[in-house]
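Deliverable D4.2, example record:
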Amino acid sequence: MSFQPRYYQTACRDAAFQKWDEGFRGTLAWLCTGSGKTVIAAMVAKRAIIEAGGRVLFVAHREDLLEGAENAFKEELHGMQIQYELNIDRLSTYDIHRNPPDAVMGSIASIHRRLEKYPPDFFTHIITDEAHRSAAKSYLKVYHAFPDAKLLHLTATPKRSDKKTLSGYTYDESEDRDGYKEFQAATCESRAFKLSMGDAIEDGWLVEPITRIVNVDVDWSTLKLKGKDYDQGQVDSIMKEDEALHKVAVGLEAIVKGKCGVVFMPGVASAHGLANLLKRSYGIDAVGLDGKTEKHLRRDIIRRAKSGDLECLVNVAVATEGFDSPFWEYMADCQPTKHQGRKIQKIGRCVRPIRGDLFDGIGMAEAREARLAAIAASEKPRSMVLDFVGNMGNLRIVTAEDVLAGELPHKDYGRQPKPTDADVKHVLARRPGMSIQEARQRASDEKYLHELLMAPRYGAKVEGEVNVQEFASFFSIPFVWSKDAPKVKERPAPDKAASDKQKNFIRFLCRQTGTRTPSDEWFEFLTKGQAGAFINSMKERAGA
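Output generated by the structure prediction step:
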């Protein structure tokens, strides 16, 4: 092996085997985008083959994910036999009885169609990439076909939008066209390891993303649900109009022109419309990409994007899982969503360091400062996440701040709370020229922003008017610790101490403004009141 694994990759591999030794069949490795999950998969496969004398199946839902993992497996399993179950061009023709492979890499569709080819005891370990998809019946049938195989689930977003977990599924025989017997699919009974995006950034593995909210002043207040999220077809019909596209293009030109990045649009019409507009009228080298783009064009576009040859990739739900370019310095999102997992996947596109060799020789736990210094001195010391938002009315969306300012509980974002008569009167007292309808909408907006952005997570009491632009500007105003930071003298009682959410939010503000983060010891002496007052002081300075 020519590379040295990162310390957490080794720890994750060992933790998976520990869970199996403890008697669990399935275990979860929850690691953020850019953490090297395919390297971990290859390390687990090597140990399973060498130490346990096993055979490994690596399965993913798309062929390009397998192609991305292929190099890691070839390097880690050097000298071992790897076979493939992919499309017709890479269909395995080996005799599994005379010359069984050490590992098989296959798409779920290909493996699912060829289950009868393998005896039930053929695979000893099954590793699933992007495992939040493994609640699907196709995956469960594969797991059931090899009942003694140990299962490792790798994903950055195990919390599904349908609120299913990765364990405890039961087939309903009445819904199974194959007459499959009902059984309990205990596929993921434990969690072996977790590395969140925030932890990876703090530990110097990922580039810090700076967030900005850009209001394109289009009406999203009438959006309907389709399944568990907003109807992207309806969003596309709004965003494909020339006025909306020009507003997005102006924002991109002003903020990120000259940088490489990726834009997510809600549909084919808006994606290709924006790409053509950027190229024709704004001098930005942009290309549109969607699921129906011809295969040879798709490969060329992906090659250009991943090599840094393409300034702007405008896509529709293509550049998500497993699609990464270290040259991407920004991610712009024009797809409103209610679900945190989808936003995490998008943010993950632009947080990889620009060079793969940046951490050579500094992959140890104690080398955090060296990694942070290496990123700071690189051509990509930070990245940018742009949320292009419309006027949501009383609807809610998940923004980058929701993901980056601290982990949220897994909840479905519904509608805004309705303002009370007192809320409306409070707005009218400050803005006497407003109509009742306008005041009710503003009161609803304020109540939503107070709840979503500040109060419930950070413990800060916010008063006065708040809007999205003002909140966004909040993160770009530097401050001086000697003036704004509370003076801490003694350790408070547990019930008086600042909450973890308050502490995380203050750390987040420091990172966003380039200000020195206080020491952990400083936070231990911080009270809830001091933390809330400090956050409020920053809010006041932002409005000054």
